[in-house]
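mind reviewing these tokens:
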Amino acid sequence: MQGTIEVGAFDAKTHFSELLRKIEKGIRVTVTKNGRPIATLTKATDDTTRACDACRRIEARAKLIASRGKPVTLKEIGKWKTDGRA
């Protein structure tokens, strides 16, 4: 279950526990005030997962570089910088 819902600040405060359950299921919650978006609430593990994936890619490349026995080219570094970007 994924998607985004909008909730007014007063309702967000009143139904916070319910909103947390929805966020755990992957739903993003945009909190509004006077109809304007103020904050977005998302599942916290999303950022942690992305960071861990990046660390694994860096570690794999470090092992590759160490096993090659030759220098890394600027072209390779440039490609690595864009890998994994959305």
Notes: The two ends are 21 Å apart (CA to CA). The first strand starts at residue 3 and ends at 8. The chain is about 55% helix and 20% strand. The beta strands are 3-8, 27-33, 36-41.
